Amino acid sequence: KYFVSMVDEATKKTLASIPLLKTRAGPRDGAPWVERLKEEYVSLIKYVTNNKEADNDWFRLESNKDGTKWTGKCWHIQNLLKYEFNIEFEIPVTYPATAPEIALPELDGKTAKMFRGGKICLTDHFKPLWARNVPKFGIAHAMALGLGPWLAVEIPDLVEKGLVKHKDNES
Length: 171
What we know:
By secondary structure, the protein is an alpha+beta fold. It has helices at about 10-15, 30-55, 125-130, 140-160, and strands at about 60-65, 70-80, 80-90, 115, 120. It has a three-stranded antiparallel beta sheet with strand order 1-2-3, with helices on one face. β2 (about 70-80) and β3 form a beta hairpin. α2 crosses α4 (about 140-160). It is globular. It starts with 8 loop residues before the first helix and ends in an 11-residue tail after the last helix. About 30% of the residues are buried.
């Protein structure tokens, strides 16, 4: 299929349940972009529904009217505590050839695996995978293969180092 060996079986199963996209269009492409956006929503809704059914609900997203700016919340549960973060990203002009750069602004500067503005580092593993799967991958895939694994690795480390505190323990 479209997966590489770096992806574990659980991730392959998750990916297999996310609808692939067909339309190769970006924000400046008019009617084809509207079609792509419909595919994005179908894919995202399916991914969120699957996550809820698997008791793995971990983000919410919404977009502006033209689907070029996305905002929302994501969360990570650790030691029965929920750590919640704002998400934001814009769809690049060259989308879908270029993946969106997902940012968690309040974590800016707290980890080396982040760029200015709180953009999470996805270059080594995710971007080559994305490039091999244009135009099939979309926002849901960026969440599943990008932000989800990043949160799972980085947030426990940031909590352990005291760089991220639970909202009830902030002082």
